[in-house]
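call fold(seq) -> tokens
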Amino acid sequence: MFEGLIKQMKKLQETSVSVPVNTDEEGYLDRECPSKECLFQFKIHEDDWKNICKDEAIYCPLCGHSAPSTSWWTKEQLEAAKEQALGVVKAAINQGLADGARSFNRKMNGGFIKMTMSVSGRPKYYNIIPVSAQEAMKLKIQCGECFTRFAVVGSAFFCPACMHNSIDRTFDDSMKKVATKIDNIPAVMKALEQVSGRDEATLTCRSLLETGISDCVVAFQKMMESLYLKKSGKAKVQANTFQRIDDGSKLWQELCGESYESWIGADRLKTMILLFQKRHILAHGEGFVDDKYVQKTGDDRYKVGQRVVIRDSDVLELLDCVKTIVAHARKVQARNEEVL
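ret:
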């Protein structure tokens, strides 16, 4: 009676279920970082996944985690595959039971007492359906080193195929992040007031403003150092040179005859120095004014012991200064590459 079921179960032991995964309409595959601390979802073009990426190591565009190519299925893909595999198993079991029922019914024909068996409620066959792709991601990136095409939401720091980290792209993403913070502060303030009250909302929004200053300084340091090293041909410079406005400006003046002042003007450069110093005491002194701050900036609006105040106009002004200087430095570097 159960010979058919036993046969199907043995057959299942030797069967593997392959579930196709569809690309989105632009040819990109869905992928997810396997690190439990990250789980960042992104997309990579199917052709580049096959032809450029290496089986032994794929890299997360957000955190840089490395894992073999078989580890990058998304939660949705895995759940869909499990569901379809289970469908195959259920169909095979039902097929075995149906075969057993037919065999039983044949044996019972012709006797004085007739008994029949039927199996219902489950399909006898299961057709594998490809896993559908999630909607396309708007931010498309192509690696400048290996030319792998991938897509993300928000920002990315590493190429999934070669782990190349684009300083240019990281800087542009940082600038966009700072601008987005400032634009969204009114909405954040309103939302947090309703949930946590005015005090919590004010503290959070103040922190967003202050970290905006820090983000500008860090991004500027990394970008200007990278551009300077490319232009000068030097292997390295003193640590954090480009966080010191005067020192960084002097290096560019010596290198190409152009300084920060020639790029943004004396008044804006003075404002930039002031905001860089505010960032310094925020990072190293909880924002409380000390003698060094007063001496370096000449800012007579504060006395020693007071705490600096950051306004959205401060962040936007620094953002514009940083972007303008980097734009000029990029032009200098581009001229250098044209000569080469």
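The longest strand covers residues 28-32.
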